[in-house]
Amino acid sequence: MIAVVGAGSWGTALTIHLARTGTPVRLWARETEIVEGIHARRRNPLYMPDFDVPADVEVTADIRAAVDGADVIVMVVPSEYFAATLAIVPAPRDAVIVSATKGFDPVRHVRMTELVRERVPHARVAALSGPTFAREVAQGTPTAAVIAASDDALATMLQSRLGARAFRLYANRDVVGVEAGGALKNVMALATGLSDGLGLGENARAALITRGLAEMTRLAVALGGEPTTLAGLAGMGDLVLTATGTLSRNRSLGMALARGDSLSAASGKTLMVAEGVPTVRSALALATRHGVSLPICAEVAAVLFDGKPAADALASLLGRAPTREDAPVEGRRA
Questions:
Q1: Angle at which helices 202-223 and 276-290 pack, to 10 degrees?
Q2: Which of 29, 58, 261, 305 could be bridged to 256 by S-S, CB 3.0 to 4.6 A?
Q3: Looking at the structure, do residues 161 and 192 belong to the same domain, yes or no?
Q4: Is there a single domain that holds both residue 169 and residue 198?
């Protein structure tokens, strides 16, 4: 039995995917209307109203019932609610807990698996990340992602339990790099949304994606990750998808801000969370802590929180002094 904790669009899509493979799945939803909607019509009325949740999927608002008997618990809640939700999850001694959340804790700026290890020190922990739009996973279209665990045997087991022919999972030992990439790409998608919203063209978008990847890599390495991880699915792959895809919440938010919408107005148009907003605060806090330069993140934050016009933010980036592309990655380990 696999328990999926969180019934947003991504949690619902993962549940549909897992059920399609024949895996017994139990889904926990905080909102009673989601539970009632799936019971009555096999649809998530708030987040995935046009996809059927298979009949053999159990759904409940009782967290104890949700995880009872589960040998794998997949956490799929927004980063700002992750710690509070984890605090009510009863994890057995032999629990396997997988974080499928892309972000940092907004208060302490730690990764999700760090929260898991603190709360459930006896658990075996992994992270699932990569270029995974929820709708396409629910549709069963081909997707590749990463399952990261320091324990090779655990990663291999989860490749089998969570993966499928159309949901190909690659194993990686670099949990830090995988989680950092999954979080930071949302900030860069905001930046490309700002550029696209201003109509600056595809050259500008390519430049932001490429230099954004450089920023992501610098911070990930400073946190203890590997540069090669950021060149893979959890870094470059997820960045390209989120910064260019029409289903990207973060890119769409950036475009709305560039058109003149306020952050509150743009965010209020959807129930779904644009993780890049809280993530940019964490990114800058971690950059200060580790002495890492993140100019794109800084300008995105200025637009989000200081009222800086998007055009001025991008002009600030263009006005930076020229530098070398082949400079060493800051914080690289020997």
A1: 50
A2: 261
A3: no
A4: no
Range of the domain at 206: 184-318
Query: Which of 102, 185, 269, 308 is flagged as catalytic?
Result: 185
- Closest to 118 measured CA to CA, from 97, 134, 138: 97
CATH number at residue 188: 1.10.1040.10
Model pTM above 0.70:
yes
What DSSP assignment string belongs to 171-188? EES-HHHHHHHHHHHHHH
The pLDDT assigned to 216 comes to 98
Q: Tell me the mean pLDDT in the region 53-59.
A: 96
Max Cα–Cα distance, the chain, nearest Å:
60
In this structure, the answer to whether residues 54 and 10 fall within a common structural domain is yes
Q: Are both 190 and 167 inside the same structural domain?
A: no
138-171 pLDDT per residue, tens: 999 999 999 999 999 999 999 999 999 999 999 9
- Measured over the CA atoms of residue 75, residue 79, residue 81 and residue 82, the dihedral's sign is positive
Residues 158 and 204 in one domain: no
261-320 confidence digits (pLDDT tens): 888 887 776 666 688 899 999 999 999 999 999 999 999 999 999 999 999 998 999 888
**Spatial distance between the Cα atoms of 85 and 153, rounded to a whole number of angstroms:** 27
Is there a catalytic annotation at residue 185? yes
Average pLDDT, the chain: 94
Residue 303 β-bridge partners: none
User: What percentage of the chain has pLDDT greater than the value 70?
Assistant: 97
Q: Are residues 169 and 216 in the same domain?
A: no
What three-state secondary structure class fits 147? strand
